[in-house]
Amino acid sequence: MDDSVEPDRMEGQKPLTKWVDEMRDVIKVITDLSEERARHRAVTESAQREYTKVCEDVARLGAETERANGLAAAAQREQNALREEVGRLRAENDQLQLERAEAGDAAAKLLDEMKELVAEAAQKLQGPPRTSPFAREAKVSHS
To answer: What global pTM score does this model have?
Structure first.
């Protein structure tokens, strides 16, 4: 009987051994899954930190872009104002050059008139034109 009990005991232990082996495999899978979960959690946390940093960078860059756009708009307004001012100054310059040319023409006419008046006054003050003393002597010696 001892021999018959021994195989029954062995057969009874086989399912238990199989179950223990399966449970070891299950525990190994659970351990592997737990380690993988920990790795994934670390990667996820790192990604979340990076995401937070990127969001902060995007917000900072958005603010910088807003400031740059404001500066660009102000520069554009100033450029437009300066272009308008240059246009006004060019028109004023053209008008002044025209007036200067007209004033030059008027001054030249006045100078011509003054020359004529001075010449007339000088002529009136001198009286009739005199003949040169040499011109008379020349007439006498030829006769």
So the answer is: 0.47
